[in-house]
Prior knowledge:
The strands form two sheets. The chain has a six-stranded mixed barrel with strand order 3-4-10-6-8-7. Strands 14-15-19-16-18-17 form a six-stranded mixed beta barrel. With 812 residues, the chain is of the alpha+beta class. Helix content is 56%, strand content 16%.
Amino acid sequence: xxxxxALLRRSAVQAGQLLAVLLVAAVGAxxxxxxxxxxxxxVDRGVEALVAEAEPTAGALRVDTALxxxxxxxxxxxxxxxxxxxxxxxxxxxxxxxxxxxVPASVGGAERSIVxxxxxxxDRLAELIAGDWATGDGEVTLAxxxxxxxxxxxxxxxxxxxxxxxxxxxxxxxxxxxxxxxxETLVASGRLGDAVGPxxxxxxxLAGLEARPRVTWTLVPDASALTADALPSLAPVEGRVxxxxxxxxxxxSYAVTVSGGLAATVARAEQAVAAARVLSATAVxxxxxxxxxxxxxxxxxLGQVRAAEWRLLEARGLxxxxxxxxxxxEAAIAVGLGVALGVVASVLIxxxxxxxxxxxxVLAAAVAGLAGVALVAAASxxxxxxxxxxxxxxxxxxxxxxxxxxxxxxxTASAVPASPVRYLGPSLALVAGVLxxxxxxxPLMRLAERVAARGTGLLPVLPLRQLGRRPRxxxxxxxxxxxGAxxxxVAGLAGxxxxxDDDAQVRAAVGGDVRIRFSxxxxxxxxxxxxxxxxGVEGATEVALVDAQxxxxxxxxxxxxxxxxxxxxxxxxxxxxxxxxxxxPALATRxxxxxxxDIPLSVPGIRSPLTAVVAQLxxxxxxxxxxxxxxxxxxxxxxxxxxxxxxxDEVWLASDAPERAAALARAASDRAATVLTPAGAxxxxxxxxxTLAVAAxxxxxxxxxxxxxxxxxxxxxxxxxxxxxxxxxxxVGAGAQARGRLVELLLTALAGALAGGLAGAVATWLAVGGAxxxxxxxxxxxxxxxxxLLIGVLLIAAGAGAGVRRRAGVGS
Length: 812
């Protein structure tokens, strides 16, 4: 008991230092759990949103064939069995629907053409706005827009197939853009050409129609089970479904087709998840490394203030082994309590945001805690004077080790893109860069000292000499400021790069704010007029998309009509004697052309190749990152007026509310069309989780780094305490010593900030896989965090200088 009380009193004397250890451990462990759990939950929500917001035909797969006359039930069972084998464990649900060819009907004494159908899960996909669901023979329901087009309501009769039917209910689709509807025009507008529908009837009536109806099975992602981890199971489904349908069509007289862009949407989601995870991993590593350095600083300070105590205990017979056991036990209690508090706090935060905490996150915090115990126990041992060679080795070995590890991870990620280690590459590159640049501190300061020594003043020679000859004294201050600056740079550059990449992706896919694509335009030309008149639409342009050939290279040729520049912000080269075009940089690189060069262009329906002249190099909206843009009038002057290349097959709209404009466009269309908006092409819902994680980590790293810088300044004061009086005796006044300490700390912080900024830029370039722009550092988050770091460093350095002035004044 006496021993326990003695140890407790011993710890109580340094309660402040041990409390600091506990707080840093809590922050580090809490950061690990929070930065793993919260971004993971945000990524899962983002994946669900990305797939749900995709254009309806891009968010599902549809199998289509003719309805079997003899036994539709057996046909349905056979297809379901085949699709179940193809889907496997992927989170997909199946929705069956039948639609007839237009059939004649008598409505209120007028002859109309209607589309009959049946719809699985109609009560889930739609809501009744009048009447009830059909329950018996002769009862039908129909969509609200179809009822309006026919001028009928509940109780009105419809005569078709030689029998009278009664409308018992009118329903409205809960979301006409739901992938289960697969972008069906009838559901949104109630019209398809001259036909109106769908009029929902019993399956038995559909099987007896003269013209065989079409039956579809739509595979729709299950939102409740759609997470980032489910994407790998979705990726191969389309290929397996296509293989399964070839077997279904074998031995039958009807074709089975598969349509939908689910595979492309899943691939887009997987790329976004990978980008978010790289940024999240960078956030975790930055928080861990910074917390570890600060923990070591606090522990070293604890060892310094206990140096005399350890010498006394060793003089009284305390063995090294028992001393190590005492340090380890004390560290285990302080760090263990901190880790427990940090994990509990993070779990509560995660619960408040409905985020599940993975077991791996808690295990990672536990492992980090064990490492923290070892670090504190080692760093708090009594200081031993090290030879210069050993001191340099202590700095070089970690730098080389982390650099080698970062190189291994980056090479492995390049050779095996699916390897999980790819998430750690950027963060390890940042830490390695900071450690390597730290080795340059002493040589650069010695060089600066030689330059400064040509003058007659004490400043800045004295602080430069201190930094050049004893860099280890400020190594920790350099590292924490470098990591803080690196985190700020990563947060700013990554956020800007991800936003720019997303904007470019959206522009390449959508062109304007709403993109409407039609089929069958060769028989029924498209006009932008009806869509330009929609509420909220500020501009419209007619576009033709042509598959052309430039030599042996396939080229997407965007033929721009009037108003194209107003809708997209990009103007096609004006018409002239030559066919002038705008070429995307990626395509120009493939073709090896520049401004002023000629390109032989083969256009479908035109026998002789055209000669196009490159007038501009720049992005081509709606061309998927490549392509070529030409003015419609310019192309019209080179080809016959009835050329297929001039047939408008798309309408692009400008609107401040794209989703509302898209819904109105669907409701206004009477022809099959797909309607794409920026939300349907964006990956921001997923990647935003990574950028927010990096920003949160940067804020945490900056705060912890300031604490570490303060601890490093205090440690430097203890280390240099013996220099104050001799310098005073040599004529160096209190003010000069204070200014020297201030300059020393500020030079260290400046060097650390520059090193961290450079390493952070490299890490961001590796993380986002593209160019970074320094202008992104002018955004709110890096400006605020940078200001906090700068002000904190200035205050701490000023405080350290004031402390030196006070001690030097007392000494005099």
